[in-house]
Automatic annotation (TrEMBL):
Protein's recorded name: ATP-dependent RNA helicase
Similarity comment: family membership: Belongs to the DEAD box helicase family.
A molecular function GO annotation: ATP binding
Keyword Hydrolase: yes
Record-linked Pfam families: DEAD
Function, in words: RNA helicase.
Main EC class the enzyme belongs to: hydrolase
Domain notes: The Q motif is unique to and characteristic of the DEAD box family of RNA helicases and controls ATP binding and hydrolysis.
């Protein structure tokens, strides 16, 4: 990527996630816009998954908009292939059929035999190790894509957490949490029906043979990283994420401090003239690689980026 050093949030998250005591707690990262949060979580995830031996969906990054998801995918795509990891995108940019063919590997069949999508005996595998998604398309895949499973997920990143928690987006969060919780039934249906008939509700079987290992511990858990430039500290909202001993990491002296190299423009205008002012501003900026526009309305805010 051509970066010569890491930004402070990237150093802080790396230290927390790599080495002794790594990922023992879920992380809540509150760091200003443009401070480099994407690479802060992408680096440790890619590092951790680099030793994986079987391809399956192990990291899921959820963002509220297609543009943001595409930018995050680019960051992963810049670093993941070097260690043999594949990154997928589920944002509704292409048709669901095209997306499915990108995300799910079709079985290799002998010449002359056709793949039957209705064949339940046919084992489907993920083509990607890391998926960057918006909630709507994620839900489409969870609900209807054959072979799409979250059962091997090790890392869940909720980027722009405030926005994602503010809007329900088809209840994506409870659904993801439900599908990533230890669900022995789906893995060992016969063993469990035998056990429940023998021992009633006693359930002590843990996952085995599934590569969701977490530091070699027998009871792997899903690690969560939640990020925002304005991370809510409202316990009732954060509770939805079901965080495990969350560690709050904040960078920047002030909550809304801008990074040194980021220039900030403020334009006050009539709301109906906003598009015109925006066009004028963009023209003035000419070749600038990226701008961010923040619209404030009461306590809510939105962040947009444009390349
Ligand atoms: N270590 C680094 N060295 C130089 N530039 C970097 C570094 N890390 C990230 N960047 C660049 O800084 C910019 C901001 O990074 P990024 O988009 O990850 O910030 P962010 O904190 O996620 O912002 P937002 O809150 O808007 O999502 C990007 O253009 C990225 O390429």
């Amino acid at each position: 990527m051509g970066f010569s050093s890491l930004f402070p949030v990237q150093v802080a998250v790396w230290q927390e996630t790599i080495g002794p005591g790594a990922f023992e707690r879920d992380l809540c990262i509150n760091s200003p816009t443009g401070s480099g949060k994407t690479l802060a979580y992408a680096l440790p995830i890619v590092q951790k998954l680099s030793t994986r031996s079987v391809k399956c969906l192990r990291a899921l990054v959820v963002l509220p908009t297609r543009d943001l998801a595409m930018q995050v995918k680019e960051v992963f795509a810049a670093i993941a292939p070097a260690v043999g990891l594949s990154v997928g995108l589920a944002v509704g940019q292409s048709s669901i059929a095209d997306e499915i063919s990108e995300l799910i590997k079709r079985p290799k069949l002998e010449a002359g035999i056709c793949y039957d999508p209705e064949d339940v005996t046919c084992e489907l595998q993920s083509s990607v190790d890391i998926l960057v998604a918006t909630p709507g398309r994620l839900m489409d895949h969870i609900n209807s894509t054959k072979g799409f499973t979250l059962e091997h997920l090790c890392y869940l990143v909720v980027d722009e957490t405030d926005r994602l928690l503010r809007e329900a987006y088809q209840s994506w969060l409870p659904t993801v949490l439900q599908f990533t919780q230890s669900n022995e039934e789906s893995l060992f249906p016969l063993a469990n029906s035998f056990l429940s008939s023998t021992f009633g509700s006693l359930k002590t079987i843990r996952r085995c043979g599934v590569e969701r290992g977490f530091k070699g511990k027998p009871h792997p858990r899903l690690v969560k990283m939640v990020l925002s430039a304005t991370l809510t500290q409202d316990p009732s909202k954060l509770a939805q994420l079901n965080l495990h001993h969350p560690l709050l990491m904040t960078t920047g002296k002030r909550r809304y401090q801008l990074p040194e190299k980021l220039e900030s423009y403020k334009l006050i205008c009539e709301s109906n003239l906003r598009p015109l002012y925006l066009v004028a501003l963009l023209q003035e900026l000419g070749e600038e690689k990226c701008i961010k526009i923040k619209e404030y309305s009461g306590l809510q805010h939105q962040s947009r980026r444009r390349r």
